[in-house]
Specification:
Order of helices and strands: HHHHHHEHEEHEEHEEE
Structural class: alpha+beta
Number of domains: 2
Distance between the termini: 26 Å
Radius of gyration: 34 Å
CATH superfamily of the largest domain: Histidine kinase-like ATPase, C-terminal domain
Helix content: 55-70%
CATH topology of the largest domain: Heat Shock Protein 90
Number of strands: 8
Number of helices: 9
Length: 344
């Protein structure tokens, strides 16, 4: 049995906590009484252990009547009985068994029991609140993971649809290029299939995927659009959510190419430390034609950014003078040599 499993046992935790209390009580009492006063230390240990056990029973069973079931009168009478039994036992231990502090009235034992009870209730509420917050956080993380997986499943057919649409256009104009492009598309789809099963992928793999996509699109647009791709900085050991950048590059290639006027697409990536800065500028022809699309790409990636990079990303998009600007700042994760987890 592992240490974690042992500590998950509430009785083991209670015994360990009781041992800590007994040790602290002994250390404090040693400042006032010699360790040779066996009867005093035995009484203190026995009464403290008994009151602790009673407090645990109260928190585990009696508080449920008050908090969960709302049985107020039943709880009140049981609480009176609890205080009576605890006071009687500690008084008997002090006076009749260990015969210490004989001149102290039973009210001292009642106040001691009441103080321990209030401390125990306070600790129970703190533990309950911490447990509820932990459960809420766990449920929130599970919901976020499920939503990310749902968005990822939407992205797969969206990308597949657009890629096949592009292949169809190229095959009509340049049929001799079709076999080469099919091979390129198969590489893109292979990466997409493998990466979609992971929460994070190496940034260098993601950037290579984008390079391959840009190469494929260059073959499609040819002379109709000037394409420029630049990357600066070191992407080694950085991780990124898969397929989170490609939608912005796709969007540029959808709308920029034009046979009527000069058009261009500029993709610039700069990596500084753990920050990725992506800037895309592309022309938007005034007489742009409608582009076949599923219409989920950009909305999808914005939701994924909000979930996966909450407070760790800045996205700015705007159009000015027939030029569309996209700027994305991401604070990425870093890894050493640990294997990347699958989504399961």
């Amino acid at each position: 049995m592992t240490l974690k499993n042992i500590l998950n046992n509430s009785w083991v935790v209670n015994i360990l906590f009781l041992l800590v209390l007994l040790t602290l009580n002994t250390l404090i009492s040693m400042q006032y009484e010699p360790i040779t006063n066996f009867r005093l230390y035995s009484y203190q240990g026995a009464s403290l252990a008994f009151v602790y056990v009673m407090a645990v029973l109260h928190n585990r069973y009696m508080l449920q009547m008050l908090i969960v079931k709302g049985q107020y009168w039943q709880y009140f009478w049981l609480l009176c009985a609890w205080l009576g039994i605890t006071t009687f036992v500690t008084y008997t231990l002090r006076v009749d068994v260990f015969r210490t502090d004989l001149d102290v009235l039973w009210t001292g034992d009642l106040l001691f029991a009441l103080a321990c009870l209030l401390i125990g209730i306070g600790l129970w509420f703190l533990y309950r609140q911490a447990t509820l917050q932990t459960m809420e956080l766990r449920n929130s993380l599970l919901m976020r993971e499920k939503e990310l997986q749902y968005l990822q499943s939407q992205l797969d057919p969206h990308f597949f649809f657009n890629t096949l649409n592009n292949l169809y256009g190229v095959s009509l104009r340049y049929p001799n290029k079709t076999p080469e492009l099919i091979l390129s598309i198969s590489e893109l789809m292979r990466y997409q299939l493998e990466s979609s099963r992971k929460q994070l992928v190496p940034l260098e793999d993601e950037l290579q995927f984008i390079r391959n996509y840009v190469h494929l699109e260059r073959a499609r647009v040819r002379q109709r659009c000037q394409v420029n791709f630049k990357k600066k900085g070191n992407e080694k050991d950085l991780l990124i959510t898969p397929l989170i950048l490609i939608a912005f590059v796709e969007n540029a290639f959808k709308y920029a190419p034009s046979s009527m006027s000069a058009s261009y697409i500029k993709v610039e990536l700069e990596i500084k430390g753990e920050t990725l800065h992506m800037k895309i500028r592309n022309t938007v022809p005034g007489n742009k034609q409608s582009v076949s699309s599923t219409g989920v790409g950009l909305n999808n990636v914005k939701q994924r950014l909000a979930l996966a990079y909450a407070k760790r990303h800045t996205l700015i998009t705007h159009e000015e003078n027939n030029i569309y600007y996209t700027e994305l700042l991401l604070t990425l994760d870093r890894h050493a040599s640990t294997p990347l987890p699958d989504r399961g």
